[in-house]
Amino acid sequence: MADLKIAVILGSTRPGRNGKAVADWVLAQATGRTSADYALVDLLDFPLPHLDEAAPASMGQYANGHTKAWAAEIAKYDGFIFVTPEYNHSTSGVLKNAIDYLYAEWNNKAAGFVSYGGLGGARAIEHLRGIASELQIAHVRQQLSFSFFTDFENFSTFAPEPRHGAGAGVLFDQVESWAGALKTVRG
Ligand SMILES: Cc1cc2nc3c(=O)[nH]c(=O)nc-3n(C[C@H](O)[C@H](O)[C@H](O)COP(=O)(O)O)c2cc1C
After folding, report:
1. 118 alpha carbon to ligand 1 midpoint, in Å?
2. Which residues face 8 on adjacent strands?
3. What is the 43 CA–ligand 1 centroid distance (Å)?
């Protein structure tokens, strides 16, 4: 087992979602890396209603079982790769809601972003960067953005251009580097 644990958080739950293929590709690219273990965190496995906690997440007083289960999952990881679709020039509501549920479990950890959409989903990442900053998540420069015009066949079957493989390597390097540094901060 490696020192670091990185979650690949799949930020879409829509029936027929393209996000699963993108997240699976990210995980496949991480296979064989020795300094971190990568695991899929699928929001379908953590069904969360619209935020229903009375106390702000920053108080850490979680009342509901679904919140405690989600918090226990995110607490396991040193870093995150958020895989986000672009919905109306932003990230998905389901991912934003899941992020809003927690606070300390995100703090002083590292993250990178992977997006997809008509124009690569970069606008979703820009919104996520602001959200991550508020949660004291250190987000790295490298990002991957997959376009429906060049990285999907017939706008539906994920077939990323080969250059993205090298880009993924840079993304993992950057996230692992900061995740390791921040582990000492948390320690
Ligand atoms: C509600 C909604 C809004 C969308 N808005 C945008 C958009 O603003 N820009 C874009 O490039 N694609 C947009 N799309 C297309 C999505 O990026 C595309 O359907 C993608 O596959 C969604 O991810 P998913 O399949 O994992 O749910 C939108 C799709 C939905 C469902």
Report:
1. 8
2. 40, 81
3. 17
